[in-house]
Structure formats: structure tokens, C-alpha cells
Amino acid sequence: MKYITYILLFVIVNIESKVVLLLTDGPIQRIGPRIYKKEILTNEYKDPNELAYDSSTRNLFFMYMDDILQNSGRAVVNVVTKETKKIEGISRNKATAVDPDTGDTYFGSDDGLYIYDPLTNTARNIGLYNVNIFKIVIRDNKIYLIDANNHMIYKVHRGNSVIKFGNVKTVIDFEIDGDNNVHFLTMCGLYCAVNSDEIIKNVDVNFATNFIVDGKRTYAITDDGIREIDCRNGTATKVADLSFTPRSIVFGDYGDIYYSENDSIYKLKPITSYRLYNVPKKKRV
Predict the structure, then answer these.
(1) Beta strands across the sheet bearing 59-66
(2) Cβ distance 165 to 155 under 8 Å?
(3) Tens digit of pLDDT for each residue in 53-111?
(4) Under DSSP, is residue 135 helix (H, G, I), strand (E, B) or coil?
């Protein structure tokens, strides 16, 4: 059996000037101060996007471009077994979200809202037939969405109707953190509605490709890395560089991170133990 050793090289500038080598048994990825083991979950789908993680089943749901449908489809991969399968019953899919409290998984399309049935592995339309759902966010058992017809945010009312959530237009993307602050991106920049009320524009970020929410903390993926958003101050502090450009990225359990890039979905698992080799530089004679 052939073994491959992967080496992550750090150059540390200090008085002694040394090179630090970290050896692992698989590909590795560094994000800020943390080091992750990188593994591929699947590369069977074209342009996977809109990742949504279900902690109860360890399933990762996603959208992909389906050549048979000639449009977007939906699939799921288990992050433990890596078993993957397509989900039937929905086409032209645009959005997905998992309710963290119930484990229910919802999809959005141009003809309304769908719910996932794990027993039949199908998606069933449950209403909002006149809403073109572009994005779904679920917080505290409440469903929020972007209507692609006017790019405004709505809140689902009693499961069969929507009410306008604020009066913000041209919304491209949004997230809601644990303090009910609404982070949203428009054609004019990044904003935050503090406690869903006072709107503050961010002075540090004008565009973000993704949001990641971890409890009360919200991070924006930008062209220069990861920034943590301060909603009340309207600022964003850079916390890490990124050596890859994720199409979609979400947190999992135990510090895991899942992201899609090109035609693949990856899992990043924190490395908690490793060997460090300090290699002193040769002194010039």
C-alpha cells in the first residue's frame, strides 16, 4: 500500500528565522489560524450550489445544474457515508433551507414553496404558488424569503401567504443571525437591520458572495477573505484569508465546514493533533 504525506509549509518570521513543516495523511486547508483536513464528498454534480446542512441526519442538501431537466435540480449527500442521491418532484429549484429546530427541509422555486419527504426522497409543493422564491432563511421556526419578481424580503404568514418584511428593494442575498439582525446585500451595498428595525450601511464591505451565520456571529465571504460583521457599528473585521473561492459555504457540526467549488463539494474537518517540524535555515558562510 502506498502512503502519501501532505506537507503544509509555514514561513515564520522571527529572530531565529525558521521554517515550520506540518505533515498530515491527507490534503489540508488553512483558514486563519485553524488548519483543516480536506476531503471531497462528491464530484458527481455540475455546479453544486445553495448548500444547506441538517444536523439531525448529517445530510447536506444542494442545488445543481441537471442536463436532463435542462434546469436546476436538487440532490443530497450524507457527510458521513458520502452516499448521494437526486431528489425528485422539483425542477427549476432556486433556494433551500433547513429548519435547525425541526430538521424540516424546504426548497423554493418559481412556483412556490416545497418541503422534503425523506421517506420517499421527493419534494412536495405546499403553497405560495404565486411567489418566485429566490432565497430562504429559517430562524426561530419562522420562514423568510426573497421574491425574485421584485427582490424584496417577505415573511411567510401561516404557511399560505407572505407579508412584506421591511421595504428594502433590489435584495440579492440575506441572512438573519441569533439576535434577529437582518444582514442583506443590495445593488447599493451591504446593510444590517438591527433587531429587524434600524438599517445601518456597512462601511467596510460593498459586496459579498456568501453569508455564514454561527449563532450571533455573521461572516461575509468577500474578495479578500472572511470578514466578521458588526451590525450595530456598520463595520466588518477581516478574520481570515481564503485560498479558494466557494460557490456556497456553510458550517456543520464539530467545527466542520462544507463548501462547493466548480463541480465538487468538500468537507473541511479541524485538525486537532499534528506534528510540527522546525527546520532551521542554513546560515550563510
Answers:
(1) 46-54, 59-66, 71-78, 84-87
(2) yes
(3) 999 999 999 999 998 888 899 999 999 999 999 999 998 888 999 999 999 999 999 99
(4) strand
pLDDT tens digit string along 18-47? 555 666 667 889 898 889 999 999 999 999
Report d(CA 171, CA 128) in Å as an integer. Answer: 20
Residues 6+ apart with CB under 8 A from 23: 5, 6, 7, 274, 275, 277
CA atoms of 236 and 228, how far apart (whole Å): 5
Q: Which three cell numbers stand for residue 140?
A: 426561530
Give the number of other CB atoms < 10 A from CB of residue 221: 20
Q: Alpha-carbon distance 249 to 149, whole Å?
A: 25
Amino acid 191 reads Y
- d(CA 88, CA 257) in angstroms, rounded, equals 27
Residue keyed to cell 464539530: 254
- Closest by alpha carbon to 256, among 267, 248, 246, 265? 267
